[in-house]
């Protein structure tokens, strides 16, 4: 009892009971209303969703880097969930997660919980075990599972089947980890029973063929492990709020479906769970655990709604909730009780504050490519964010101190890199002029936004445009940049963000049929033969993200498409996005051919494939890859320092361009 009193004394009182918060201008009244989760009164219905970071830990214990990461994005958030507290060494899905079996875990996690609570958010720790879905390289041995059955993807090694006594030990391990979380200052835990991890593996007939008390013919029987975990946590720490994350659907043959989710939800409720988080998908499923590209806002809200209708517990919805209006509509219509926001709070840590203040247009939007976040984890690298270069750098200032003697900064090119450089320069106190030959800002963003999978780019272009207005940046459009015209602007420093153009391969036959570059096609320019638009089947040359997105644009317009690439399709994007592009092309009847283009004739493309020369009939050709940088030669004539960034430096995409725009002015430090 004494330890409990000491622990309560350390916990700031507002974490337990907070007065309801009213939205500015009453913009999102339901989103910013209070609600109850078991023993907790939460000030609003926003949760920072658990996301593994790939950084911020030393041997399973959090560092100052992680603390600052959470401190940056928990203002005006009702609860923040820290991922993925592994309850046992063989349960780690990543190395950079809390190792809850360590004796010092509670002490090390205390500053993290305190930093979250200091912002008025309730600190919550996700607890889980990866089971068979962990890398042997991460855990240094063989994975364990309900049954000796390898997972669908990623991990080929067959796991070892857990003994009954080992399952019971893991139940105790979850309870022990929960007590450590409570001691550290966390007021809630989220038990991970979704996404193909251990508890989910027990619930699924496709991974559980046991004949002991943890097996069975029904979902209710197979849910016993998760039910025992919830019950053990409640017995060990009655004061904790306990949520359970479960799948509303697995999206794989033989996987859990909605009826199974409701059965499991009722079992968890009976065991004492205070709330549910409804997600979806497993590793290798289509659709995905992480909504991508053109997946709609609120992708999994319907799943949450169906579970909510079948159980008397608060239900949290997840899945590409990036617009406060999406959250408000889902809540006001009674489809869920709260929303978990993940990647949107990576893109803009002030998401909740801007929503509360009735300023949704000021929220820097998540564009859903997962190239900077989950895509990095696939390569074993720390997460970043394509639109927010400050992710992971919260511990050190990225905004330079305002200048006592500001310079006149001229940015050439109003694409993503140039716009970020202009934004950063204005924030640092420089006088900024940005020029572009186009009649609107956005550059490659606006072209990309025309393709179905990248329509979110328009929101980013609009956000940058609004930032230019608010920061009083001098935007000059229809401006032809030359050494003389830029010199007339009297710059003290120049940032060249002049982008890239499609490199046209050397082929015979360009005069035989209509040919477009990808940018010419999306800009509604005529083909090489003066054709206004593609007709019939089109061959797209190139296998990068731009080629795949352009292919989907053509398919959307009604043109059958064959993508011809000499390399692995989608090799310049994240593995998740690659699978999304290819599955969409395939489902729409398009195809991808690995071959080297050789020549064009009046009726199609001749290419060299592994088995010899092939002929692909078509009515037109679109060249989408590769790209070459546009670096004006006259830059060297300037009499002031300059830096070249983004695709003008080397074509790589939006994320690197924005990151280099963000850092461009460090040359002046």
Task: Throw out a few tags for this protein.
22 helices; single chain; alpha/beta; globular; five-stranded parallel sheet; 669 residues
Task: Produce the secondary structure layout.
Elements: H1 2-10, E1 35-37, E2 40-42, E3 46-48, E4 57-58, E5 61-62, H2 64-72, E6 79-86, H3 105-118, E7 122-128, H4 136-139, E8 144-145, E9 160-161, H5 164-184, E10 188-193, H6 198-203, H7 219-222, H8 224-236, E11 241-247, H9 258-271, E12 275-279, H10 301-310, E13 315-317, H11 324-332, E14 338-341, H12 343-347, H13 351-356, H14 374-377, E15 408-412, H15 416-427, E16 431-435, H16 444-448, H17 457-470, E17 474-476, H18 483-487, E18 493-496, E19 500-502, E20 515-517, H19 518-522, E21 538-541, H20 545-557, E22 561-565, H21 575-587, E23 591-594, E24 596-601, E25 604-609, E26 612-617, E27 620-623, E28 627-629, E29 642-644, H22 654-663
Parallel strand pairs: 3-6, 3-14, 6-7, 7-10, 8-9, 10-11, 11-12, 12-13, 13-14, 15-16, 15-18, 16-17, 18-29, 20-27, 21-22, 21-27, 22-23
Antiparallel strand pairs: 1-2, 4-5, 19-28, 24-25, 25-26
Helix pairs in contact: 2-3, 3-5, 5-8, 8-9, 9-10, 15-17, 15-22, 20-21
Your description of this structure?
- The protein is an alpha/beta fold.
- The chain is globular, with a radius of gyration of 27 Å.
Shape: globular
Strand content: 15-25%
Level of helix content? 25-40%
The strand line-up of the biggest sheet is 3-6-7-10-11-12-13-14
**DSSP, total strands:** 29
Give the termini distance in whole angstroms: 55 Å
Main beta sheet: 8 strands, parallel, barrel
State the low-pLDDT regions, or none: 1-24
Summed over residues and divided by their number, the pLDDT gives a mean of: 93
């Amino acid at each position: 009892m004494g330890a409990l009193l000491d622990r309560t004394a350390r916990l700031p009182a507002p974490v337990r009971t907070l007065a309801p918060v009213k939205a500015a201008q009453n913009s999102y009244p339901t989103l910013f209303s209070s609600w109850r989760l078991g023993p907790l009164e939460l000030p609003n219905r926003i949760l920072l969703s658990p996301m593994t970071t790939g950084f911020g830990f030393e041997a399973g214990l959090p560092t100052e880097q992680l603390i600052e990461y959470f401190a940056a994005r928990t203002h005006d958030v009702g609860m923040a969930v820290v991922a993925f507290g592994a309850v046992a060494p063989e349960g780690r899905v990543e190395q950079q997660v809390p190792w809850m079996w360590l004796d010092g875990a509670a002490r090390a996690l205390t500053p993290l919980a305190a930093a979250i609570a200091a912002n008025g958010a309730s600190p919550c720790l996700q607890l889980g075990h990866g089971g068979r879905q962990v890398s042997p390289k991460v855990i240094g041995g063989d994975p364990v599972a309900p049954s000796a059955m390898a997972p669908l993807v990623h991990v080929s090694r067959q796991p070892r089947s857990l003994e009954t006594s080992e399952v019971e030990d893991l139940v105790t391990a979850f309870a022990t980890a929960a007590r450590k979380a409570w001691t550290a200052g966390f007021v809630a835990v989220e038990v991970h029973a979704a996404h193909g991890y251990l508890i989910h593996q027990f619930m699924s007939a496709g991974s559980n063929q046991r004949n002991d008390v943890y097996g069975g013919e029904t979902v209710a029987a197979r849910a016993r492990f998760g039910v025992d975990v919830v019950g053990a946590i409640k017995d060990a720490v009655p004061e904790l709020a306990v949520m359970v994350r479960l799948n509303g659907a697995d999206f794989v043959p033989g996987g859990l479906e909605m009826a199974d989710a409701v059965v499991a939800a009722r079992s968890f409720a009976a065991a004492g769970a205070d709330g549910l988080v409804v997600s979806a998908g497993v590793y290798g499923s289509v659709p995905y655990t992480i909504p991508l590209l053109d997946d709609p806002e609120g992708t999994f809200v319907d799943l949450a709604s169906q579970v909510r209708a079948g159980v008397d517990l608060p239900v949290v919805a997840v899945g590409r909730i990036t617009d406060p209006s999406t959250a408000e509509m889902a809540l006001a219509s009674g489809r869920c009780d709260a929303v978990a926001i993940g990647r949107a709070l990576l893109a803009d840590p002030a998401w909740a504050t801007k929503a509360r203040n009735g300023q949704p247009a000021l929220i820097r939007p998540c564009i859903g490519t997962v190239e900077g976040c989950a895509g990095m984890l696939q390569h074993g690298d720390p997460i970043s964010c394509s639109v927010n270069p400050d992710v992971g750098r919260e511990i050190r200032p990225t905004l330079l101190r305002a200048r006592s003697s500001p310079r006149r900064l001229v940015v050439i090119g109003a694409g993503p890199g140039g716009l970020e450089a202009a934004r950063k320069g204005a924030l640092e106190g420089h006088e900024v002029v940005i020029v572009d030959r186009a009649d609107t800002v956005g550059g490659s963003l606006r072209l990309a936004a025309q393709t179905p999978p990248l329509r979110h780019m328009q929101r980013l272009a609009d956000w940058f445009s609004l930032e230019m207005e608010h920061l009083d940046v001098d935007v000059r459009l229809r401006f032809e940049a030359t050494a003389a015209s830029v010199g007339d602007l009297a710059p003290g420093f120049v940032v060249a963000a002049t982008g890239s153009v499609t490199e046209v391969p050397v082929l015979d036959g360009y005069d035989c049929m209509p040919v477009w570059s990808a940018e010419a096609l999306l800009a509604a320019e005529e083909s090489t033969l003066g054709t206004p638009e593609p007709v019939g089947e089109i061959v797209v040359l190139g296998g990068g993200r731009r080629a795949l997105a352009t292919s989907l644009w053509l398919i959307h317009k009604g043109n059958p498409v064959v993508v011809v690439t000499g390399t692995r399709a989608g090799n310049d994007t994240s593995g998740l996005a690659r699978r999304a592009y290819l599955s969409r092309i395939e489902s729409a009847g398009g195809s991808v051919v690995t071959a080297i283009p050789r020549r064009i004739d009046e009726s199609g493309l001749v290419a060299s494939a592994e088995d010899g020369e092939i002929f692909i009939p078509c009515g037109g050709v679109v060249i989408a890859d590769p790209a070459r940088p546009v670096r004006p030669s006259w830059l060297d004539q300037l009499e002031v320092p300059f830096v070249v960034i983004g695709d003008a430096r080397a074509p790589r995409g939006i994320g690197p361009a924005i990151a280099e725009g963000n850092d461009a002015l460090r040359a002046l430090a």
